[in-house]
Give the backbone structure.
Amino acid sequence: MPARLTYLEMALVAFFMPGCSAHKALLIGWRQHALVPGPNSGWSEATAAGALQRRLVGPVWQGGTQVTDVWLGDGDDPEGGQPGDMRRMCVFVIVTCLLATGLAVLLTF
């Protein structure tokens, strides 16, 4: 599914999922999608950070060298990795995938 459609779908899921923010998902996804390398991954990563109201990515090291220190998300939100974050992210991703699958099935008819 194209990354920009996934961005919108993730914001829709965030609207209905307790503890998530559709507003932050749309805002942060739109503003920060280009901060990470690659043409598509930034859309879903930035949108997830906004939806779950967590700062994600952070400093990345490769071979002992820091390659980025970019954080995705609202600077006032806590870092990801808090208790319960992994479960929330898994539920968020599963619901998003189920919605995408449902939409794909509907579009084939």
